[in-house]
Write a structure and sequence with these properties.
The structure is a homotetramer. The first copy, chain A, has 2 domains: 7-94, ACT domain (Alpha-Beta Plaits); 99-294, Formyl transferase, N-terminal domain (Rossmann fold, 3-Layer(aba) Sandwich), CATH 3.40.50.170. In chain A, 33% of the residues lie in helices and 31% in strands. Chain A contains 8 helices and 14 strands. Chain A has helices at residues 31-41, 72-85, 110-120, 139-144, 157-173, 190-195, 216-223, 258-281; strands at 7-9, 15-26, 45-53, 59-68, 89-94, 99-105, 126-133, 149-151, 178-181, 200-204, 227-234, 244-251, 285-288, 291-294. In chain A, the strands form 3 sheets. In chain A, strands 8-7-6-9-10-11-12 form a 7-stranded mixed sheet, sandwiched between helices. In chain A, strand 7 (126-133), helix 4 and strand 8 (149-151) form a beta-alpha-beta unit. In chain A, helix 1 (31-41) packs antiparallel against helix 2, helix 3 packs parallel to helix 8 (258-281) and helix 7 (216-223) crosses helix 8 (258-281). Chain A binds chain B through residues 52, 54-55, 207-211, 222-227, 229, 243-249, 253-255, 257, 288, 290-294, 296, and chain B through 52, 54-55, 207-211, 222-227, 229, 243-249, 253-255, 257, 288, 290-294, 296.
């Protein structure tokens, strides 16, 4: 989907850039024509395009991939009048540029391993300058992938506040665009949730909205459900209620113990989180109130 | 799965019956040996066998299919000492015998059509002597399958009580073994729930325990879930909390309206309910406290 | 997905039509801008839009839904220069118009029942003026839905030729836009395949390209596969090799007999065929050489 | 499913061992009774039991887990007469004992990483004394998990023969019980296939029997399939035709390039292979002619 090269050449050898434009605005007629006109003006060819008009919020969403000899300044200039005319929330980026991503972890390694393995294998367009953890457990794993690792114990309100300050410092220091909670087992403070709004993804180990809160597999076992799952969602101060990005389930039966549900569920957690991170990094995830628009 | 013929013959031409034995009792050593001994004594051969020991309740569950020249009396006699020794809740039935089933309906036809079509096609080992509805909408559909249909409006506490009396009368009159709520849109009274305990199956149009109560697809849309589903469960007076028998989900995305979720979900409702009814009719569903054991 | 009303009104009470435009042409820059310009010129608002550029064939594909006060003539006039300029294969239709569909059947009723039930329930935008069968078995079922039914035995080259002439006559007589082989168990002649090219859909009872030809469930059982499935595809004279529209699978295990695989597979056949017909009727299926583009 | 402790104690503090018995023999009446009798005689309690009678081959298969204070000698002695009477192919093992497993690899790391990560996380009851590869690519990855790694180039018939001798030497040296081809990209010689018959598992990157041979994702793309998959199977000299152990699929659409299909398919390959290895190590996989019996 994302090529690692963001530059190609056309038939005449002209150097081509690859751009991804995402936008949202109040819906109305003529938007697609206006946007495509700006792209034509910037010598661009649309290679992928998706749109959605939300009946719930009256918002219009669009994601367009463009190949063009134009540089960022030229394309921005062409889009500027459209952006202004429609009061768009518009974002322009290079296709395939790795997103600067901070990973928060605790003791469970499956999600961290999955993210790091996929990143190294070139399947996940992120760069991870740091993994922060409230335990030292995963140091060896993270070291293996050559990623810096820091851990600080969180055992009191004071240490929790200190850890959250460290998170915010790291976000600033590394110019972080996405924070991933890879089975990080601490509840973020409302202040931190606000500071990271729209750029912090959590994996919850249940098929939300079923089994919110602690020990979801224990709850699932007690209830005797026939499918268990995982949910990747944006973090908000309303715990386990943030906009859902992706969900997966797997079939189980009565014979499974809680421990087995945990083991079975980990696969769904890993792949659901990695999928959500991938889509976010590719600018395929947009917010429509409490819901997400996913341009797969 | 089960052939409609419950009699075959062995190599010497001896007439063979096919029996299904289901049992539960307090777990302990020697049960399988005792049961298989009784079956050998009754000249039986075990053709299918499943068991489960529940750590939660300490109960042992078993389902055995047997082919034998023995008639019911001989097999019962052989099993009697085992049943007594272990104080078993034991049930003996012919494989493939159609279960006498009462269907309750309202206006939506998809589940009723699916049940009746499968029954007629020989895929569902039930016989349906009556469909009862609180609306007349489905009369033509049910007529087509040659099944008697009765409807009575439920518009007040009095008419509701009358309808529930009619249900109980029908259960008695037709010697009903299973009541199926095929998108029947009335809440059963606690008394009726008790009277039908363990033999009344409902289809809920959500992936429980998410979206209990009314308008689950509206709730699912508002929450922006990425999978919607259906749950077949035993009816108890604890609304939408009865033991779960089967669940299925299907993927949806942000572009689906509530009306589309309803249409998409109906397929899952139909097949989930028919699957639950089939397993129940084949004696594959046993109760383990608030959970079910499903011997697929 | 598609509402049955193809007319709404805007805020000023102006009567709005709903149109679906599908097109394909050789790829190149500026197509989206040209199409959206024509739509703006015809006072249209794009409510849904999808596009795809095929690297294999160099073709560009687009499907656009438009609401506009314009009638067909106005919209056609606006699109005419674009169509000419790009030498487009362009099609304009009303959203939700029922497609005139001929169903061919033999003895198995599950697919026919599913199509007719969904059509009547408003889930499938087709009208079915006739079901043609080479057996009389399904007459009662089709009668129930009030659809004309004809059967002629096919037992020799002569009767086969006669039946195929009847098919072509029916296509002409009823102005048929789609022919559906709903488990029709005769191989169409190459001449008939050609005559119906691009508008004839078959359901094959296997997960193609595995298990082509006869008795696919028997083949699947012998091979011990762990998933069985169904494939809806366009009919071509190259048997079981036509472009694939939709596929589904379901898990099975070693304990299933061939007869059980048949029963289990029928659900996948029904829903896969109905899904393919629905997408086709909604103009979501386009041909790209030997492959299909599906704008879901 | 597998507890890490294979010893527990009963209520009186008696030390309990956990055993798994797998057997197959010609089917006939009384087998279950005889086996359960031997287990009772060895003071055992059956905690899990599954059986299957194959209509195709006339063989009976059984897998029983037993807890008992008996040691191996006592249980073997109790089972010996039953084994002899029925001429059983019977195997007795400790529950949870790690299977000695040799991994063969080439350049692709996803399956190797998945196996090693799960083994270290305690999800896969295997021990891996060696990874053998025909490339040096994966040395760092394997080193990280502390597993010995050897690579030898295979570029000619001579080096291929040498590599196969090294495989057989390693099997003997490490008393290997299972050889896993984790995307090992060499065809094994018929002699090696025979030497490893029934204990060598391969992952094929397609949903067999579709797309046998080389470049299955390219074939899948050309054919325009809507689901791609992976198949874990026993290796036989009949290439890609060995008995199937597990299969999984994932949905794709027309927009995916061959390279994207490869990336998407790798997840299915990893989890399908790990699942097959887990079941094999837990003695849940038995051979029934060209088919497998999987006691999940």
């Amino acid at each position: 989907m994302i090529t690692d090269a963001t530059e190609t050449a056309d038939a005449t050898g002209t150097h081509l850039n690859h751009w991804v434009v995402t936008l949202s605005c109040t819906d109305g007629p003529g938007i697609v024509h206006a946007v495509s006109g700006a792209i034509v003006a910037a010598r661009g060819n649309i290679t992928e395009s998706q749109q959605f008009a939300s009946h719930d919020t009256g918002r219009f969403f669009m994601r367009v991939q463009v190949e063009s000899p134009a540089d960022r300044a030229e394309l921005e200039a062409a889009l500027a009048p459209v952006r202004e005319r429609w009061q768009m929330d518009l974002h322009l980026d290079e296709v395939g540029r790795p997103l600067r991503t901070l990973v928060l972890a605790s003791t469970a390694g499956h999600c961290v391993n999955d993210l790091l393995f996929r990143q190294r294998a070139g399947q996940l367009p992120v760069e991870i300058p740091l993994v922060l953890s409230n335990h030292g457990t995963l140091r060896d794993l993270v070291d293996f992938y050559g990623v810096p690792f820091e851990s600080e114990a969180v055992v009191s309100p004071e240490t929790k506040a200190a850890f959250e300050r460290r998170i915010l410092d790291a976000v600033e220091e590394h110019d972080i665009e996405l924070v991933v909670l890879a089975r990080y087992m601490q509840i973020l403070s409302p202040e931190l949730c606000d500071a990271l709004a729209g750029r912090c993804i959590n994996i919850h180990h249940s098929f939300l909205p079923g089994f919110k809160g602690a020990n979801p597999y224990r709850q699932a076992h007690a209830r005797g459900v026939k499918l268990i799952g995982a949910t990747a969602h944006f973090v908000t101060s309303d715990l386990d209620e943030g906009p859902i990005i992706e969900q997966n389930v797997v079939r189980v039966d009565h014979s499974r113990s809680v421990a087995e549900l945990v083991a079975i569920g980990q696969d769904e957690e890993s792949r659901t989180l990695s999928q959500a991170v991938k889509w976010f990094a590719e600018r395929r995830v947009l917010l429509d109130g409490q819901r997400t628009v996913i341009f797969r």
